[in-house]
Specification:
heterodimer; A: mainly alpha; about 85% helix; B: about 250 residues; alpha/beta; Rossmann fold; 2 domains; 4-stranded antiparallel β-sheet; globular
Chain lengths: ~250, ~250
């Protein structure tokens, strides 16, 4: 019953969020600000995590290949496909759910408890649309770029780790990342990124928007926003994978 | 003019507003007073539409706000100015951006025209050289004045103030009170102030509604309050030694 209530309120909030914008120029400026806040400010963390994950995936795959009949270029292929299929979309999505999600829930939650949202409503402004719509659009726009960045940096990190540790030659690694490349995987990864971007922004925004009480409740809303968006990311990861990769 | 007809509101079966009937007049500072929990904030939030009332009618210059569609309500809300208890300034925006906000949203003026208006209203509330400061960088009294400036930026027809003096020292409180009264008279708007500050009552109460446990206990003005005939109101207004002395002197 509680789940249905949440679903109903979430649906109502999204209907309000996607109502006709009051003034396009203001919304455009807000979206640019959000792209900077949610996307550009996340480049650092995406870069660092991707480079190390790419390196670890490469080294672990190499050190677990004991059978001499398995060609070494498969290490590059594994690193590439792991980054494209799972890491750059899902794991980066989960990391952004933590970073961006908590930021959104606490920002909107604080606005709620300090009556800033009431102030918007009194002015005759659709507060849900003004506050949430630019965040969703910004994340849907910028997250695919973060995804591509993560793929490149992760694969590059794998190469640096492979060569610097002497685990693999550059030739083997490069051959592996070119071998049996399926462009459709990029499409699959992008679709996941866009869906996750919607979840990462809308779910914490929902928890922040309906917060009641004070600072403690804002903190709780922030935690809930991160937890529920993470769970939904994992759930939709399975659903999208089944829909797009099942033969 | 704002007219309330038999306004009722309950939360979880507990009646908080028990049939309020009053006309808040234009060009006057109308006060809603009462103890904590008497229903003042609920009444103010009901008037501005943040709470839906269960029964009755709220009319803004004979326009029925209660039974209006949301789209039409939004239009009326653009005629509202609201000063919240905590100021409710956008903390990630500067003073200038806060005051300019409604101008950006609802007008097509150039930046220079909007800036002129911002500077005009800031000067009107006696604030200069604060345009680029953030709310956290100014005092509580200045925040309230910025909130008033933001509220009047669009020339509202109705001004609502929720506990505008809370957290302020008496002297600053009087400055805020006088400012609200001056603006009300200058722009000939309908102002409703929610307060339990006795200085405000005796200074600016052109019309006063006293709420007692959600009921409309007494209606009058600042001069009549000393002889209200209401025991509950007397207990509320003259609760302090100072106020009792003032009453005795008045007699």
């Amino acid at each position: 019953m509680k789940l249905l209530t949440h679903f109903g309120r979430y649906y109502m909030l999204m209907a309000k969020t996607f109502a006709k914008p009051q003034k396009n120029s203001i919304y455009f400026k807000q979206t640019i600000k959000e792209i900077d806040k949610l996307g550009i400010n996340s480049i650092g963390i995406v870069f660092i995590i991707s480079v190390f994950m790419g390196a670890v995936i490469t080294l672990q795959t190499r050190y677990n290949l004991e059978n001499p009949l398995i060609p070494l270029y498969l290490v590059g292929l594994t690193a590439r496909d792991t980054m494209i299929l799972e890491f750059s979309s899902t794991i980066v999505g989960l990391i952004l759910a933590g970073k961006v999600g908590s930021n959104i829930a606490s920002e909107i939650g604080t606005m709620r408890v300090t009556e800033q949202i009431d102030a918007l409503e009194i002015m005759g402004i659709n507060s849900a649309s003004y506050l949430i719509f630019p965040k969703i659009i910004a994340a849907i726009f910028i997250n695919p770029f973060l995804n591509i960045l993560s793929m490149f940096v992760g694969i590059a990190g794998g190469w640096v780790a492979a060569v610097s540790s002497g685990a693999l030659s550059t030739a083997d690694y490069l051959y592996g990342i070119h071998y049996a490349f399926i462009p459709y995987y990029i499409v699959y990864s992008m679709v996941k990124t866009v869906v996750f971007a919607f979840i990462i922004t809308s779910v914490p925004a929902y928890h922040g928007f309906y917060v009641k009480g004070g600072a403690l409740e804002v903190g709780k809303a922030s935690t809930k926003g991160v937890v529920y968006s993470s769970i939904l990311i994992l759930l939709f990861n399975v659903i999208i994978t089944q829909l797009m990769l099942a033969k | 003019m704002i007219e309330l007809k038999n306004v009722r509101k309950a939360f979880s079966g507990r009646e908080v507003l028990k049939g309020i009937n009053i006309v808040f007049e234009k060009g006057k500072t109308n006060l809603i007073i009462g103890q904590s929990g008497s229903g003042k904030t609920v009444l103010l939030k009901s008037i501005i539409g943040l709470h839906e009332i269960d029964d009755g009618q709220i009319l803004f210059d004979n326009r029925d706000f209660t039974h209006m569609r949301n789209r039409d309500r939004k239009k009326i809300r653009q005629e509202f100015g609201m000063v919240f208890q905590g100021g409710a300034l956008f903390d990630s925006a500067t003073v200038e951006e806060n005051v300019m906000f409604s101008l950006n949203m609802f007008t097509d003026k150039t930046y220079e025209e909007k800036l002129d208006r911002v500077n005009f209203v800031l000067k009107r509330v006696n604030l200069v050289n604060v345009n680029h400061l953030f709310p956290s960088e100014i005092s509580g009294g200045m925040q309230k004045r910025v909130a008033i400036a933001r509220a009047i930026a669009l020339n509202p027809r109705y001004l609502f103030c929720d506990e505008p003096n809370s957290g302020l020292d008496p002297k600053t409180g009087i400055v805020i009170d006088n400012l609200i009264r001056e603006i009300t008279e200058e722009y000939n708007i309908t102002t409703i102030v929610n307060t339990h500050d006795m200085n405000s009552v005796t200074e600016i109460g052109d019309k006063i509604l006293y709420l007692y446990l959600g009921e409309q206990n007494w209606v009058g003005n600042k001069d009549e309050i000393f002889n209200s005939g209401s025991e509950q109101l007397d207990n509320f207004v003259f609760a302090t030694t100072l106020m009792r002395k003032i009453k005795n002197n008045f007699k």
